């Protein structure tokens, strides 16, 4: 890139930033509706939600004006045509288009509708009022300049630049979904991006991928979702979509990474605020008792079985330790191994070792399983 090209790029970027900073959707709407009659203005305001009560139906507006719903439809269509023929001449459509174009370009050319509105208003201010005005501008002024993608079973409603490739988007999204399936655990955005770059370095779609583009694309897909910790995974995973109290218990323990007392689990669930429901310690305790994923390792303290904790009594834990050992173990070795699986006193381990029906003490002070056990 030459020095002149670099300077030109900086000038263009600076101009685009200035346009985004000056984008005022309410002011644009007020300018657009100037050519309208008072009744037409009222119908547009009510029909498109430019007031605190939100959008009104044709029937509701018709009742207010004491005319038929069809008459309200006619007034609305007349008003919209005036806006497009006369109103647009009074605003810079090119500048408005630039705001949406630069937002879409920085996110891979395709964005879910909600994200496009939020990012477009990032300088102006994201408020319900601004989003309503911006949505009107997007759908009434720019539908021929930008492409709208209807909601489907797989995708949320989205907008794209005319030049953006749907095929490339779908290929990349399939690659992301396949990668998540192999990883089999939700991850932060930057880790998903790193994994894609490591596993598919030759993919042209991956080479152009960055976090804003990845964030936009996965928000379009209904198969991918973030959990309360901001980690992204497949929607059907219990660590992503938490439908039951057991899902909350599991994710809380997994994120904590250490055994917790059931009252502490309940407290953390309420602190995280997965939803509006309050976690009751007794309910949590019941879930822990009934589910084999959890192992009681102390009085009211539970761990995940997948961490390597063994279910059963202290004596049963000792039995498994000796069974997996290729030699007799001393009392201290057994105690150390048990304490990795149970939060109990050393005296409890010693007491369990005194069970002569299960364990035999050798002359050299080592312990083995009794053959009958």
Topology:
Blueprint: H1 3-22, H2 25-32, H3 38-47, H4 58-65, H5 69-85, H6 93-105, E1 110-112, H7 113-120, H8 128-141, E2 147-149, E3 158-160, H9 166-183, H10 189-199, H11 204-207, H12 211-220, E4 224-226, E5 232-234, H13 245-256, E6 260-261, H14 262-272, H15 281-290, E7 294-298, E8 301-304, H16 314-323, H17 331-339, H18 346-353, E9 359-361, E10 367-369
Antiparallel strand pairs: 1-3, 2-3, 4-5, 6-8, 7-8, 9-10
Helix pairs in contact: 2-8, 3-5, 4-5, 13-14, 14-15, 17-18
Question: Any descriptors?
Answer:
373 residues; mainly alpha; Arc Repressor Mutant, subunit A; three-stranded antiparallel beta sheet; 10 strands; 9% strand; elongated
What does this structure look like?
The protein is mainly alpha-helical and 373 residues long. Among the domains are: 166-233, Arc Repressor Mutant, subunit A (Orthogonal Bundle); 245-307, Arc Repressor Mutant, subunit A (Orthogonal Bundle), CATH 1.10.10.10; 314-369, Arc Repressor Mutant, subunit A (Orthogonal Bundle), CATH 1.10.10.10. Helices cover 54% and strands 9% of the residues. The chain has 18 helices and ten strands. The radius of gyration is 31 Å and the shape is elongated. The model is unreliable at 7-15 (pLDDT under 50).
